[in-house]
Amino acid sequence: MCELFAMSSRVPATLGFSLERLARRGGADGPHRDGWGLAFYEGPDCLLLREPRPASESPLMQFMERQGLRTRMALSHVRLATFGDRSLRNTQPFARELGGRMHVFAHNGDLPALLDEPFPAGVRFRPVGNSDSESAFCGLLTRLAPLWDAMPMGGVPALAERMAAIAAYAGQLRELGPANFIYADSDALFVHADRRTQCDGRLRPPGLYLLQRCCWRSAPELAEAGVSLTTVRQDVALVASVPLTDELWQPLGEGDLIALSHGLCFGADGQPAPPENLGVGRTPGQVGH
Q1: Tell me, what's the pLDDT at 66?
Q2: pLDDT tens digits along 8-40
Q3: Separation between Cα atoms, residue 41 and residue 122, nearest integer Å
């Protein structure tokens, strides 16, 4: 199965160490040799980098590890192909515009039934490739589009409304197969956890892990801009298919749905969710099998 990674932070941060760990799983320490992708957000837009080659052998990935970009929101995917050929069009993350913002999606799991559902002419969001993951993304955007279309220029739907729409669709996906995914709309990162093939070969939770950090860091870029305060609070939330460090990563439960924004975690009601109570992300009746 593929592997996912995402970061949300209060102050723009780089991903060098995390990318190095993730890239090694893309062909060196893991079998995920069929492609990789990175999305770095800057406001409503994002820089999307993708290659249908092993991340561990990519000079571009190595460059990003060393130089990196500062961002408040990023997500990444390393691919082990199950559906769809090894090509750029099937390399995640996938991106589309909606509401004047770039929306990005990455998925881990198998949803073969989606490939049997044709996209009729006139449908707003259609796959470019032939993977189940891109079909899932198009289906998700189709359900979210009414919320965004109702907003004035530059407006963002309420977090709780977006969470409800995503939770409802995620519940449908779980009926078809493992549906771990990370979705970003430039305002927030949405993380849905399901089941994953574990080291013992069994398909079971956890599908994703969460790590939250809080620290104080120097900010020389502020001093250069003439701001006297050069020490700032940094909140960071990291999500990964498997823990990337020796820190205490928290496993997410089957059916958990959380939102990350500026390094903080939010539950289904759009309110901050403490780390010890992530289950509030589940929607009653849609918790899964």
Answers
A1: 78
A2: 999 998 876 566 666 655 444 555 567 899 999
A3: 30
**Is residue 39 a contact partner of residue 75, using CB atoms and an 8 Å limit?**
yes
Indicate the residue type of 251.
Answer: P
Place of tokens 């530059």: 154
User: What is the average per-residue pLDDT within 243-263?
Assistant: 93
Is the pLDDT confidence value at 68 over 80?
A: no
Packed helices 159-174 and 132-149: angle between N→C axes, nearest 10 degrees? 150
Q: Which residues are catalytic?
A: 2
Indicate the length of the chain as a whole number. 289
- Please classify residue 215 by burial: count the beta carbons closer than 10 Å to its beta carbon, then call 0-12 exposed, 13-18 middle and 19+ buried: exposed
- Candidates 149, 193, 162; CA nearest to 269 is 162
What is the domain partition of the chain in residue ranges?
3-281
Question: Residue 31 forms beta bridges with which residues?
Answer: 26
Tokens 């990350």 found at: 260
Q: Please tell me the CATH code under which domain 3-281 is placed.
A: 3.60.20.10
Token reading at 68: 């990196």
Distance CA 15, CA 178 (A): 27
Q: What is the pLDDT of residues 90-136, one digit of tens each?
A: 999 999 999 999 999 999 988 989 988 777 777 899 999 999 999 99
Both tokens of 185, joined, read: 């709309």
Rounded Cα distance, 242 and 5, in Å: 9
Bridge partners for 181 per DSSP: 107, 192
**Lowest-confidence segment of 19-23, 139-143, 165-169, 270-274 by average pLDDT:** 19-23
Is the CB of residue 2 less than 8 Å from the CB of residue 77?
yes
Of 171, 147, 151, 169, the C-alpha closest to 160 is: 147
- Which helix (H) or strand (E) segment holds residue 96: the answer is strand 94-98
